[in-house]
Structure formats: structure tokens, C-alpha cells
Amino acid sequence: MNADRLLDAPRAPLLSVRGISCSFGGVRAVADVSFSAPAGQITGLIGPNGAGKSTTLGIVAGFIRPSAGTIQFAGRDITKLPNHRRARLGMIRTFQMRGEFDRLTVLENLLVAAPGQRGEKIRSIYSVRRTWRQQQRELVDQARDLLDRFGILDHENVYAEELSGGQRRLMELARALMAKPRLLLLDEPMAGVSPAMRDRLGAHLLEVADSGIGIVLVEHQLRFVEDVCGHVLVLAQGTVIGEGKMSALREQAAVLDAYLTG
Amino acid sequence: MQSLVLYIGFGLVTASILCIGAVGFTLQFGISNLFNLAFGATMTAAAFVAYVCNSAGLNIWLSLVLATLAASVLSFLMNRGIYLPFERRATGKFTMIMVTLGVGIIIQYGIEAIWGGDNFSYNMAAGSPVHVASMLFTTTQLTVIAIAAVAATAVHVLLRYTRLGKAMRAVAVNARLARNCGIPVKAVVDSTWLISGALSGLAGVVLVIDVQVLNSGTGSDFFILIIAAAVLGGIGSASGAIVGSIIIGVVAEVAAGFINPEFKDISAFIILAVVLLLRPTGVISSIASAKEVAR
Amino acid sequence: MSGAWQFYIATLVIYAFVYIIAASGLNLQFGVTGVYNFAFIIFQAAGAYCTAVLTLGPSSANGAFQHYIVGLHLPFPLPLLISGVVAGLLGVGLGALTVRRLRADYLAIVMLVISLIATGVVTDYQGLFNGAAGLALIPQPFASLTSNLVVYDWLYALFAGIVCALVLIAVRMLIESPLGRSLRAVRENENAAAALGKNVTALRLLVFGIGGAIAGISGSVLVSFTQAWSPESWLYAETFVLFTALIVGGVGSNLGPLIGAVLVPVVLAEGSRYLPQFGPPTLVPSLEWIAIGVVLLAFLWFWPRGILPERKRTFPSAAVSRPLTSQTTGDLAVKDLEKESGPSR
Questions:
Q1: CA-to-CA distance for B214 and B149, rounded, in angstroms?
Q2: B98, C117: Cβ pair inside 8 Å?
């Protein structure tokens, strides 16, 4: 499993983040962070705890307001765009913790994600022809496909709150894909997932990237990052202290220091 | 101008009663992160305890002490017996409000079931009028203001200078951290409910002493103003509650005097609603912000 | 059955329908979307007042013994429809105030205060809706159909039942649709919903509007029957009773509001009528309130999801949902409706 080949093809930056900063109560959580995430590539974001990785994702996705900086996505300046509009443009994020809809079944979780559902329009709900039902049947099939690929089809009618930790991550990933993303922002998607499934998912993520979707991946499991990510950024105490290929970063003193002390 | 000062004088009396209640209410929020909507009912309960003692022949001020103790115990039991068990089940914030409302209704209508819907009053000497500057008070009202001043000072001293008080503030800001620092959180919570419960009882009796009428809805009617004062001042902050009480008390009376007596309550609510929408964390917002009541 | 009994039963039935309509509206807001509208009762009041001042003639007539705005003397069903729209718009307006993100219980207090302000304003501004005395002698709709009072009551009960059925059906269609699913997603986790493209604010405003309209309709139906309406009819405690009804009946489900509305306001309030009247006149009502408080706490502790909780949605199995030929799609459409009995894995 090697991501080198993806770097050969030139891609326009799908996501371009310039100089974003933000503070919480006087503490600089993110300071002047800049990076690009091209389409068709998997960009890794690593660093010790508290480095600002999730905060960065939160800023990019529109859940945290930065005090400075700009964000360009698919050629648009989305710095001021509300988070749900960014999602509509195809930027889909997952959450490090508690991203599920607890009292919805696994299948329903995925169905929520599908964009452009006719049944979400009042006009369609009360129209005589009820075409939304046919569309929903198709979405159910798509969702089942995804659940099968992630190995949790058996749990389609289980409430999300009853899933184990690893199963939740799988469901959230499947759900993110159901949303027809152009860019995936994944926050520790492999936490609690078994090694076997992790490998399968890594391969799946590479397929997803191959199809033209960009991925930004926050992860702690460095082997996984090395296997899957073409380009990696290291964050420590809110700033980028290194970037490049994982193998090179392993040698850099600054990176080692950050992991030992941070 | 003279009438303005006169109304401000009335406002100080209202503010005093509000202050006692608001500090109690806000302490409960600070320590348990919960809006105890049964607070008004405990005020009424205390007022009725005082009534019972008073009718049995006891002096009103002595009855006040007994009633305060009763309210203290009642509040402590409410927290231990009902609120804590629900909270241990990770009950959501809104559901907890329903729980407190349920408790309040049971207490209020329990009182009404026993004493009916009639009005009562205390057996006490009418105070003689006193002029202070251009303001007109009765000796009773001055006593009420004095009680409020003493109570507020006592709470201030408690919070700022005693170990218990500092522990209470620590738990209010971050209970988990306080526990990790070795603070006996359970005991601190119990103490806070005893103290704030006493304040609710004190407020209830003092209210009836001032307005001279008591029925099963007395505490609940006044309680809304207490909420307004506590929230305006910054929920969770005792000094904020004092500030809020003065503002609400004075504004309410001035509005009643200048515009319309019926506007007393509405003016307070409108201030509250505006504050909640513009600056929900209130004047002194430290604890309200820590508890993230508004994002 | 004697006329008095018939009148009593018919009245009870009408009240039940009104409560069911109101509970459905609140269920849409609270049960399905997780919106804590503690000022709910003012929307019922808005609908009632709106119908009243539209059905009544100009206030200057009849010696001007009551003062109120408007007074258009519109014929049925215009007041009902307009009341729904007005209450709905009011709902959206109130919802807009709550866009500022307040914690759930904090928000409840804001709503409570707004409810009190509304009561205060209506009571103090006599010219609006005749203040504390309220409005009376509101004309009843389709009264020309019969002069027999008992027959009219049953006719009205039928009318109320039809409105109730329509509301229940409309709400059910909404809840079972993908839009309903998005509302539940907002309830469960609004951040995750936003991350999937749902406009949480717009969805909340939508249910404020629809729920408000439904509350307004319930008020309209009630006031056209009772012919009177005053601030006494919509104290903030009524909102509390409706929330209790939902918690008892079942939060979020389609029939939960029905059960809750029948059990809590109707049985609890009217059932006590059959107990022998003992003690002073305030005793039995006080006991009713105590009973509501105890029932609420008991349910919150033992059965927090209520008698008929929100049921799990399952979907027909793959073999069924893939259409085989165009001829069989008709059958499949019917099978889709039977998803309650779909196979669960």
C-alpha cells in the first residue's frame, strides 16, 4: 500500500488554507497555519495531543471562527461561509467524538447524509405523486452497499448509540461517503478500529482518493498515516513544524521533539 | 425629581428582598449547574412555616429564624433526594428543569391543599414611618434592608475569605478540577444547598413581612423577578446577583411610579428578555460563560 | 342520554381534540426536533385571539362593552385559516429570537419570560384584547345549521374531530418523510447535522412556524366553541401541562401526543370531577396539580420515553425494494407503506 504514485499527477489545490489562527481564552490554539490539500490525494495532519489538529479541522469546516486567515475551496473563498453551506459544496467532515445520531438507526444515519433528497421539500412531501419514495428506495440500496463494504450491514437497524466505538467510526465514515463529498475531513477515523479493518479501510480510502476526492486525515496511528498519506503536516502547539513525506518527517529532530515533549 | 428619589427608595426595599433570593438562586446554579425552578415554592413554604409559628404566638422575627432553618433543610433534601439521583443518570438540562418545575408544583399545591386559596398575614407590629433623605420607609422596611445587607455581606465574606467559600467558587467554575485538587465536592455541594436554601427561606419570609399578604402563590409570583435579577447580574455570580437585584428593584419601582403600577413586573421582564438576547451571560459573566449557557 | 350529559360528553370530546392538536404541534417542536418552546401556549392564545377578533364585529357595536382590535366579522372558515397563518408567523418570529445559541434550559427560561411578558402586555393594554376580562360572546361558526344546542355541540365535536384528524395526518406525513428524519437528526446532534449540509437554523424556524400554526389552529377551534377567551385561559402553566402530556404519552412518536393529551389534561382534570367533592373547593384542583407533578416525576424517572415511545424505523429488505418489472411497482408501493412490519436484521 503505497501512496507515492498519487504524487506524480499534478492536481489543482482543492483546498487552500492560508494563515489561519484562533485563540481560546487567551491560549493560541492555532497560529498562522497554512496548507493545501489537492483533490485525489490524502493529506495527513499529525501531531501530539493539544496540537490544534481538530481545531484546524473545525476551522476549515466552519465550526470554529478563526481570528485571521482565509480558506479557499474548489476555487471559492469560503472563509465567511456557514458550515452547512460548506457541506453542501461537498466539504464533509467527521468528528473525533460523538458524531453520531444516537437515536437513529445506522441505516437512517446514512440516509440523513444523502444530498438532494426530494423528501426534504415540503412541496414533495404533500404532493400527490410522492416521488420521494422511489428516490428513497434507491438511497437505501446505496446505503446498504456502503454498509456492506464497511462490514456493518448486519447492524443496519441498530440504534447508533448501541454500536461499539469502532463500529461508530465505520458508520461515520460510511455516512460521510454517502454525502457525495468532494473533500473529506476525517478526524481520527481509525480510533478503536481493528487492525484488519483498518487495512481494508486504508485501501478503501485510497480508492476514494483515486476517484478524485480529496482527503485530509487527522490521525495518531503513524503507520496508517505513512501507508495512506502522500503529504503529511506536523502540528505542534498550533503551528506547522514540518511537512513532507512521512518517511522524511520521521528523521526530523523538531518532529521527534514535539512528540516526546508535546 | 423628588418622586424619583421616592421611588428609588421603594426600589431599595424591593431590591433587598430580591437580593437575598437572587443570591440564593444563583448559588444553586453555580454549584449544581441547574436552574432550580422550585425556588419560589421553597420561599412560600418558609413563609408558611413562619406563619404557623407566628400564629402559635411566636414573635415574627423568631419565626423567621425557624422558617429559614426549615427552608434550608427542605432545599438540602430536595437536592439530595431528587435532583442528585436524576443528575447521576446524566439527565439532560431541559429535563432537569422539568424535574424542578414538578417539585415546585408539588410543593406549591401541597401548600394550597393544606391552607386553601386564602390570603393570610403575619401578626406583627406595623412599623412607624421614617424619612431618610427624601425617601420614605417604615422601620420594618429598614429592618428588611438591614437583613439583606447583612446577608449579602455574610455571603460575600463567605465566598471570598473562607475555605468553604473558595471551595464553592472552585466547584462552580470546574467541579472535576476541584475534585482532582482534593476538594470534597459532595460536602461543598451539600453546604451550598443548605446555605442557599436558608436564603430562599429568608427571602420568602421577608417578602411577606414587606407586602403583608401571604398565599400559596406568593413565592412563585415574586420568583420571576428573582430569576430576572440573577440572570441580569450574571447567573452563578453572587455579586452579579446583588447588582442585578438593585437594577431590577429600582427600575421596577420607578417604572411603576412613573408609567403605570401594572408595569412593575413587565418592565423587569422586558429588561430580562433584552439582556438574555443581547448579552445572555449577564453583567458579571464569569461563571455563566464557564458553564456555557450561551455560545 | 339526557341533554346535560350529552353536553358534558361533547364538551369533553372537543377539549380532547383541541388538546390532541396542540400536543401534536408541541411534539413536532419538542419531540421530533428537540426545540424547547416553553412559550408554546402563547401560540394557542394567538390563534384564539385572532379567531375571536376576526369573528367578532367591530368593537364599537353592542355598546362597546369590550375593547379590541380588528373586528371584521369574517365568515367561517376564514378566521380559522388566518389564525393558523398568524400563529405560524408569530412562531417563526419567536424562533428567530432564539437563533442566538442558548443552552436548552436557559432558553426555556427566556421562553417562560416571554410568555409572561405576553400575558402582561395583553392584560395591561385594554384596547388590544380587552385586558384581563378577555373577550366574550364570540360568534360560533356554522350556527345556522341547527338551533338545537345539543345537536350543535355534536356537530362541533365532529368538526373538531375532522380538524384533529387532518392535523394528525399532516404531521405524520411530515415526520415520516426525509425532512422528518433531518429534524430528528437536528435533535440528536445539530453539529453532525450541519456537517452533512442541514441548515439547522432554517429547520428550527420551520418547526417553530408549523408548530405555532398548529397551536394557533387548536386555539381557534377551542375559542369558537367556548365563545370566550381571557389571559386566565393561557397561563404559562398550560405549557407545562402539555409538556407533561408529551412526556407521559411518548415523546417523538405519532400517537404519543394523542395518548398523552387524553391522559393528562383530560383524564387528570376531568376524572377528578367524579371523585366525591370533599374539603374546601380548592382542595381537589390542588390535588390535581400535585398529581400532575407526581406523574411527571414518576414518568421522568421510570418511563422517560413515555407510554408509546418513538418507534424504530426499518426499511423493507433488499429483495423487495428493487423493482422487478414495471407491473410490480404498484405492489411494491403498497409494501413500502408496510415498513412497520419490515424484517429487522
A1: 24
A2: no
The DSSP bridge partners found for residue A44 are: A217, A232
Find the CB nearest C194 among A83, A125, A133: A83
pLDDT mean over A244-250: 84
The shares of helix, strand and coil residues in chain C, as percent rounded to the nearest 5, are 70, 0, 30
Q: Inspect the interface and report whether the beta carbons of B105 and C109 lie closer than 8 Å.
A: no
Cβ-Cβ contacts under 8 Å, C314 against chain A: 105, 107, 157
Q: A50 is in which domain, residue-wise?
A: 4-100+179-261
Query: How far apart are the C-alpha atoms of B198 and C75, rounded to whole Å?
Result: 58
pLDDT given for residue B256 in this prediction: 81
Q: How many residues does chain C have?
A: 345
Would residue A172 count as lying in a domain?
no
Domains of chain B in sequence order: 2-290 (1.10.3470)
Q: Nearest Cβ partner of C336 from A100, A107, A133?
A: A133
Contacts of C292 in chain B (CB under 8 A): 105
User: pLDDT tens for residues C204-228?
Assistant: 999 999 999 999 999 999 999 998 8
One domain for residues C67 and C216: yes
pLDDT (tens digit per residue) in C38-65: 999 999 999 999 999 888 888 776 666 7
Cell of A259: 512528540
Per the structure block, which three cell numbers stand in for C96? 428567530
Q: How far is CA A196 from CA A190, A202, A208, C277, in A?
A: 11, 10, 19, 73
**Residue-by-residue DSSP string for C146-205:** -S-HHHHHHHHHHHHHHHHHHHHHHHHHHHHSHHHHHHHHHHH-HHHHHHTT--HHHHHH
- A30 and A65 both lie in a single domain: yes
